[in-house]
Amino acid sequence: MFENLTNKLEEVFSSLKKAPSLDEKQVDEGLRGIRQALLEADVSLDVVKDFIAKVKPKALGQEIIRSTSPGNMVVKVVYDELVNLLGESNSDINLKSVPPVPMMMVGLQGSGKTTTTAKLAKYIEKNKKKKIMMVSLDVYRPAAQEQLKLLGEQNNILTLPVIEGQRPEDICRRAIGAASLNGADIILFDTAGRTQIDFQMMSEIKQIESIIKPTETFLVADSLTGQVAAEVAKEFKNTVNLTGIILTRADGDARGGAAVSMKYVSQVPIKFLGVGEKIENIEVFHPKRIANRILGMGDIVSLVEKAAEDLGEENLKKAEENLKKGQFSMQDYLSQLRQMKKMGGIEGIMSFMPGVSKIKSQMDKSGIDEKVITQNEAIILSMTKKERENPKIIDGSRRKRIANGSGTDVATINKLLKQFKMMSEMMKKMSKGNLKGMSDKGIPPELFNQLK
């Protein structure tokens, strides 16, 4: 996410940071690079103009010209304005109403609205401890109601039974009564979409809004459509009381234009990002963290939260205990590899790291790809329990057996064992609080050499 924009901005900032001092000409040149990067990321022209207009006077301030590190001060100014543009702080879901609390999902057809309804339901049940009922109001798209019903069955989420021939307004009234009887805290109404905005769709949505009186109305928009998504948000805002935006397919959006433009164009906060196809692939939108990622500063907080969520409390405590003892076995390493796969593999994790473009460059030069995880997993699974607990006993004959069992060769086994030794030493340092050599600019180069 934001890969293209991040790479271009990092190039601009790298040039600014090299200068011992900055004059107006250099600042203008840097701002031209930022402007071009934003436009190429499909950020709205009005947004770019306003952004540059706010950044320039601050970037030319005397406190920056006199600074010992003027380039870093410019980055700080850009960061602050980017946070303002994205929304300053994350907006939580409004649950301040008498249950069942009605919420409405709106958007164009194909934006992923029905799938996102199920994702949001699962998120709220897990994180807010509320019982959800999902209701499909899409009586036009073939099998739309069946799709939501199936998602509910697959993920153990309550859905309103489908009655053929009912109109959306009648379904709304039936849903409110059924939710009360079933003890649902929240009702998520999945409205019908269209291939484009039209009067009939907007009229129906306004009618539904008047019946259910939602505390939240979420626009589900496709991040990959860039400026189009921002304009769609503006149109919906003019019709209904839009309270939040959920951007889908954000994981496939290397440009990031929609995320940057949305808040400015619609004056509605982005509340969630859809980052994959699985039911759990939905993230809270944190403007400051996103600004960090866009500017190549990483998002370690989100990475840690994601790891903790995927790993589970019991496994997390066990890992913490082992770390305190300075213990790190091949079984622990296998768990880490599987954790990496859950979190999107090497590339998925690297997207949260500071200096992401430098890290990816290191990876490309070292010839590292996602196959490394699968290969190392196969090697460890070919080891006996004793070998995993104490890799030091793995001699020449054992290496040949492990190589045959994993479909690799002895040289590959040797690389993994060297890599494990480094990881083990690193874990011991961490357990003693000694992080010397661990840089926030990327992964130590010697570790990459072992991954080759």
Total count of strands = 8
The first-level CATH class name of the largest domain? Alpha Beta
Q: Average the pLDDT over all residues and give the rounded result.
A: 80
Q: Report low-confidence residues grouped into runs of 5 or more.
A: 434-452
Helix content: 55-70%
Strand content: 5-15%
Bulk shape? flat
According to CATH, the fold-level topology of the largest domain is: Rossmann fold
Rg is: 26 Å
Characterize the biggest β-sheet.
8 strands, mixed
How many domain regions?
A: 3
Assign the CATH superfamily of the largest domain: P-loop containing nucleotide triphosphate hydrolases
Instruction: Report, as a whole number of angstroms, the end-to-end distance.
Output: 26 Å
Order of helices and strands: HHHHHEHEHEHEHEHEHEEHHHHHHHHHHH
CATH architecture verdict of the largest domain: 3-Layer(aba) Sandwich
As laid out across the biggest beta sheet, the strand order is 3-2-4-1-5-6-7-8
Helix/strand/pairing category: alpha/beta
How many helical elements?
Answer: 22
